[in-house]
Amino acid sequence: MDCGRFFVEVTRDEAHVGRFLWSPVGERWRVMEAVRRGDCVIHYIATRSKSRRRGSFVGVSRVASEAKVVDREELLRRGVESEYLSEWGDYDQFYLVELEGFVEFPRPILLDEAKNFGVEVQQAYLYEVDVKVGRRLVEVGLRGGAPVQRRGFVDERVKRFVALALVAGKNLLFVGAPGVGKTRLALDSAKLFTGCEPVVEVGRDGLTYDDLVLHFVASGSGARPRLGSFAKAVVESWRSIREGRGPCQFVFDEINRANVDLALGRVFTALDLAHRDKVPVLELDEELARPLGVEPGVYYLPFSFRVFATMNVVDRAQLFKLSFALMRRFAYVYVAPPHEKYASEVRVEELRDDFDLDPYVEVALEELSIEPRGGDIPALIRIGLPTVGELREFARGLGVSRVLSWVVEVGEKLGVEVGPSLAVDMLKLAAVYMVFRDKAPRLFDNPGEFSQHDFLDLATASLAVPYLSMALPKIRQRYLLSQEVKELETLKNIYSKVGELFGEQSFTARLFRGLFDELPIDLG
User: Fold this and answer.
1) Are residues 257 and 308 in the same domain?
2) Of 34, 50, 99, 364, which has the most beta carbons under 10 Å away?
3) End residue of a domain, out of 287, 312, 337
4) Among 91, 113, 142, which residue terminates a domain?
5) CA atoms within 13 A on the CB side of 271
6) Domain coverage including residue 226
7) How far apart are CA 236 and CA 256, in angstroms?
8) How many domains does the structure of the chain reveal?
9) Are 503 and 344 in contact (CB under 8 A)?
């Protein structure tokens, strides 16, 4: 970001951050007259704020125009919270500085971190900082915070699989220990195949559907509507798509800190590509749309829209805590710490090959070939798809049918019914892998870095293992009640087999071990 000078804003009112600066007109705030178009403002949320991000630097904006003087009513119309404005009851005139190009830091920078490179928070609303200090703070903020420089931690094969999953229409859930690079990977992935920056939300207790979609905040003697982060991503996506830049994806960081079934349950169905144009997310009449500054109408999720979620887990016992209704709508990507070496050694040839792919191949290709509407490309990029016969033979050669036979067999032994969506999702991934591998070498410019074994291992770990986790609640309950649990012995036998089939250092084996971490038993 090119900046003339750098200023720091210290505020308790987070609602206006990135939109404008405001203060009473007076000697204490004369610095407002000093800012010029092209200067940059770094935003700090004061420790006295009610915001969950208090005590941290949260983003940077560019000054769009010099200060002008406005009245109290203008600030209320702009959305300044009345409770903050009431603190300045003795003032009738206020400075207003328009901002533009707000970029939120992927991870807020705490003050103690910022002090390491010369930043101090002064007892002032706005103050100038040295250009070198300001530039350093912005550089650190935009790459995700000083202590998190972990791009190299994530295996390149995982990144390639993520790209395939996106084109195949999947939302992504990144799980792993703190600090392994999940948030960075989510943010980077959300920028693939689009020219629009993602909208970010951080999970927290009490987060509701209204918080994410549409709610009302106090304003003067009444209330005004405010779009939540999810709805903002949808509305901005349609605007960006019309401009030819692609969708503004939604990143839900630390999703497990929120009651996600409560917060997103009403749009679970809309997350499936097949239902995108049937389940509305937002309906705005003229009265609601006007104060929001958006077009009235019914808003559906764009076909190209994806959700990227992250989930912190201290150990693998927490990997399967989310509801199955959520998990089946995501590709489940385990982000391993750097000390865990990854190697896929797939040996599925000995598995039965009796799963009939025919009922699912055509469905998979139909979902991948949804016609673009108004610039909304479901696969994010235009690709040429294989024929039904080509995909059937390719998937069978990969071993997809053998893996599906094995998953169905294991599911029956564990009392889990494996639905058709798993087969369809596996085949959609296989189709995209086939296209990218054969016709788009720009993604697989070095085929040796992403083998067929890597694909099959990551696809099984991301899509199939979460299905089998549905057996855990019943097995755990019966075990704790000291009842005979025949499925437990079955699970142990399967566990010993997984390492042979996929390799002890494969993602499938690691996630399958997570199933046992959920149970109060010793594998011996």
Assistant:
1) yes
2) 364
3) 312
4) 142
5) 23
6) 151-312
7) 25
8) 3
9) yes
Q: How many CB atoms lie within 10 A of CB 429?
A: 28
329: nearest Cα among 254, 404, 272: 272
What is the rounded CA–CA span in Å between residue 107 and residue 184? Answer: 9
**Is residue 210 domain-resident?**
yes
Residue 335 lies in a domain: no
Q: pLDDT in tens for each of the 524 residues of the chain?
A: 678 899 999 998 777 888 999 999 999 999 999 999 999 999 999 877 666 678 889 999 999 999 999 998 888 777 776 667 778 888 889 999 999 988 888 888 888 777 766 777 788 999 999 888 888 888 888 865 433 333 446 788 898 899 999 999 999 999 888 778 888 899 889 999 998 989 988 888 888 888 899 888 777 667 888 888 999 999 999 999 999 999 999 999 888 888 888 888 888 888 888 788 888 999 998 888 888 888 899 999 999 999 999 988 754 445 556 676 777 789 999 988 877 888 888 888 888 999 999 999 999 999 999 888 888 999 888 888 999 999 999 999 999 999 999 999 988 888 888 889 999 999 999 999 998 876 544 455 454 578 889 999 999 999 998 888 877 777 777 777 766 667 777 777 887 888 889 998 999 998 887 766 666 665 55
Residues 116 and 197 in one domain: no
- Do 137 and 12 share a structural domain? yes
Same domain? For 127 and 176 the reply is no
332, part of any domain: no
